[in-house]
Amino acid sequence: MQNLETTYMGLKIKNPLILGSSSLSENADGVKKAEDAGFGAVVLKSIFEEQIISETNADINGAEGFNGRNDYLDVFSSVTKERYLEKYLDLVSKAKKAVDIPVIASINCTSESAWLEYAKRFQDSGADALELNCYIMAGNAKLSGDQIEKQYFEVAEKTRQIISLPLSIKLSWHFTSIANVVKKYSDLGYDGIVMFNHFFRPDIDIEKVSVCSSRFIQPKGDYSETLRWTAMMSGEIKADICSSTGIRDSETAIKMLLAGAKAVQMTSAVYQQGYEVAGKVASEISEWMERHNYSSIGAFNGLLAQEKIENPQRWERSQYMKVNRF
Length: 326
Ligand SMILES: Cc1cc2nc3c(=O)[nH]c(=O)nc-3n(C[C@H](O)[C@H](O)[C@H](O)COP(=O)(O)O)c2cc1C
Prior knowledge:
By secondary structure, the protein is α/β, with parallel strands linked by helices. It has helices spanning 28-37, 49-62, 70-98, 112-123, 145-162, 178-187, 224-233, 250-259, 268-273, 277-291, 320-323; strands spanning 6-8, 11-13, 17-19, 41-43, 47-48, 103-108, 129-133, 167-171, 192-195, 202-205, 210-213, 240-243, 263-266.
């Protein structure tokens, strides 16, 4: 086996394969399975502010005897919220005890106050790093792209100020200028940029004539946007890029590393093939390195980044002219 050791956000990892945040990492057992199967690090299931709020509301609605006593309700809701936060902090500490690989906690909040409160609590949770999962649905026609981005960066800046742990942001590609947004996060001192997140999307069930969720785990992953932006940004920013979305096999993982990713996250592949996919992908990367005489990840990492290739335009332009030639 070749040496697959690398560093991501200053964390030493035995290989560049990271289990992405999902129910696969919602308990210490899943995290241990990931380590045993060969993952280099794990991102825990996110704590969602919306989930805390909805579970807190459900608890309040189920509680008897308050009869509109708002003073009691305030106390009750903060106790319930605290309980869910504690539950997540407990997951971090159990996961840390269960494994030697780095454990990355993940937060998804919608309000600025919650971001800052949660981030502060995770600072001392024992996690090795923190991944922020941030997404503002740009569905308000009164808000411009600039105004929405301002919301992202206000929270980003304040969070960075209070967190001394390695900190990453997991972004979607729904920005007019992805390059500008990614660079700003890096300039704010973020250690890692996870590009990109993939969301549950609505669909329509034509038999029930109703709105439903689309199938989240697609049979085949589409990695093309991830690859393009990894290649275009890896030489431009100080932060490490962790490629995510569509990475199902060793071939795609190798492509991301060649494009300049310091690490890759895999999620759907594990739902489809089991945790063992990590060991298989790691040994196939090693075989490929041996065939190409690369003795370390550093020997080929970023070789095909935009700034390194002869014709950098190849990462930017779609080749419609060629395709349309009769
Ligand atoms: C069932 C499921 C649950 C997920 N839960 C989370 C989550 O809690 N937080 C998060 O940041 N991403 C979550 N994700 C997104 C994944 O971490 C990942 O970004 C996405 O699946 C794209 O990567 P993939 O193509 O390797 O699956 C979830 C994905 C799946 C399939």
